[in-house]
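Thread: Newbie trying to understand structure tokens

Hi all, I'm a second-year student working on a class project, and my supervisor (Dr. K.) asked me to get a predicted structure for one chain before our next meeting. I've only ever worked with sequences, so writing a 3D structure as a token string is new to me. If someone could post the tokens and maybe explain what I'm looking at, I'd be very grateful. Here's the chain:
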Amino acid sequence: LWEVFVPCGTEYEALPLGSKYMYRIKGCDVTDNDKIDPFGQRFEVPPAHATVVSGCNDSICPGAFKWSDADWLEARSKLRADDSFRRQPMAIYEVHLPSWRRTMEGGLL
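---
Reply by user tm_fold:
Sure, no problem. This is what the structure looks like when written as tokens:
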């Protein structure tokens, strides 16, 4: 059984960007567990842990990331034009994600 409560009023309206939310899972033992949205794109800074409503747009973030890969994108499109990108060297990396997890003090888990 799933239940959703969105405190936005009676009309269908979007949550304002920057709103914070969590999923509340009610256990059979009457406990409530608040969880982040596993598909969220923005989150509060720990130790807070709510998901933050994002418009999939970096412009709402202070100091939004500035892309600087125009030269690379142009070179890639030229390689794709004649299919020569298939003859270029490629590196494939494997990452062990748990190795990157950190404690609240910054140490490795």
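A couple of things are worth pointing out once you decode it. The longest helix spans residues 70-81. The beta strands are 20-21, 23-26, 32-35, 42-43, 51-52. Feel free to ask follow-ups in this thread.
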